[in-house]
Write a structure and sequence with these properties.
single chain, 0% strand, 77% helix, 399 residues
Length: 399
């Protein structure tokens, strides 16, 4: 097989893998990281546990949708720039399309069967995240020091609410790793296949800054509704840490307070966004489809969707060329050991709130979640199959 044919096959492989996840990854960004780990670390073995945790820690530090940034990087590592584009497209479009159809009145989420499916999907997220926490803890917290860092991260997230708590926990974990985890260097640190040149990284960083500073000026100087929408959604994506739910107040300020979308439309769309798989940032496609400035068009939906994701991806591309060099330093290895242990703690805290508290309402839901955990951990079923089984279990519970 020629190199060109092999490249095309890898791009197809990436697209199909992420399309399945885009159709079945319910539960928000923390659950998405669990789905990715199950699919690409355990099942497909595209990368090691430690490398995956490194990527998660990096993307948690950067503004933007962390799970989508991790998926973008996985596609990049597997099949180059076109693989990154395939991963983002396949993971994002299913939920975006559903939300646009919902905005156009083509979907209704009523009735006991629909509600049972949604509830079963929430329980699935419990099983997925629990499985990820268990597997990552065994690999990334093998000693008392790193277990202590993970526990400290749990307390930090509990005491400091919101995305600030998550970022603070990882920063504290990294600093603790610098002090406590320097005893030996990791023997398996190796170059990651990140086909991004330093020049491309500098270009991406420059474009990020130019758009962040230039779009508000252009929107102010011009009456163009398109420029105003581009500025609003780009700024929302550029200034949010923690992704997902954190972007909601920024979007509310941009589209509701400006009169582009009514408060009722905003809340209705947010409710629908909770019921679809994939990244919560696809809520922007719903808003773009109902906004008054662009006449509630498909163009508005596509523009809002691209602009809210663009800043996070530009920042990621700007950082990646320097990632391999950073990981080779002994101090950096110690820092990442502490940060990775903290990531386990952050996931553990998220397993309880909001994943567990929103899904486990009684013993039936607990039994269903335990079933999903065993199907993943013992029977080694793929995540999409567990999603289908537990969604059916949710229907039985509702009836």
């Amino acid at each position: 097989m020629s190199d060109a044919s092999r490249s095309v096959e890898r791009i197809k492989e990436v697209f199909i893998a992420f399309l399945l996840l885009g159709l079945t990854s319910f539960g928000g960004p923390i659950a998405h990281l669990g789905y990715f780990r199950s699919e690409f670390v355990e099942r497909r073995r595209w990368l090691t546990e430690r490398t995956y945790a490194d990527l998660v820690a990096l993307c948690q530090f950067l503004p933007g949708p962390a799970s989508s940034q991790v998926g973008f990087t996985l596609g990049l590592m597997r099949a180059g720039p076109w693989g990154a584009a395939a991963a983002w497209t396949a993971f994002t479009l299913p939920s975006a399309i559903v939300l646009v159809l919902f905005a156009m009145g083509a979907a209704k989420l009523d009735g006991p069967v629909s509600q049972g499916i949604i509830h079963g999907l929430k329980v699935t997220a419990v099983a997925i995240v629990a499985h990820a926490v268990w597997g990552m803890a065994r690999s990334l917290c093998p000693d008392r020091r790193r277990a202590g860092i993970a526990l400290a991260a749990v307390f930090t997230v509990v005491l400091v609410n919101g995305p600030l708590g998550q970022v603070t926990a990882i920063v504290i974990g990294a600093l603790a790793g610098m002090m406590l985890c320097r005893s030996h260097a990791e023997g398996d640190v190796h170059e990651l296949a990140l086909p991004v040149s330093a020049r491309a990284g500098y270009l991406a960083g420059g474009v990020f800054v130019i758009l962040l500073l230039g779009l508000p000026l252009l929107a102010w100087a011009s009456p163009s509704a398109t420029l105003a929408v581009m500025d609003a959604f780009y700024r929302a994506g550029a200034l949010v840490f923690g992704g997902g739910h954190v972007v909601l107040p920024l979007l509310e300020a941009e589209v509701v307070q400006s009169g582009w979308v009514s408060a009722d439309e905003f809340l209705t769309g947010y409710g629908a966004a909770q019921a679809v798989p994939g990244p919560l940032f696809t809520f922007s496609s719903y808003l773009g489809a109902v906004m008054t400035p662009l006449g509630g068009s498909l163009f508005g939906a596509a523009l809002a969707l691209v602009m809210i994701f663009l800043p996070g991806m530009l920042l990621l591309v700007a950082v990646l060329p320097h990632w391999n060099r950073f990981r080779r330093w002994d101090s950096a290895q110690a820092l990442m050991r502490g940060a990775n242990a903290a990531v386990v703690g952050v996931l553990g805290a998220a397993l309880y709130q909001p994943v567990w508290t929103s899904a486990i309402l009684g013993p039936r839901e607990f039994a269903l979640a335990l079933t999903g955990f065993l199907l993943l951990g013992v029977w080694k079923l793929p995540a999409w199959a567990v999603v289908a089984i537990l969604a059916g279990g949710g229907i039985l519970i509702s009836l």
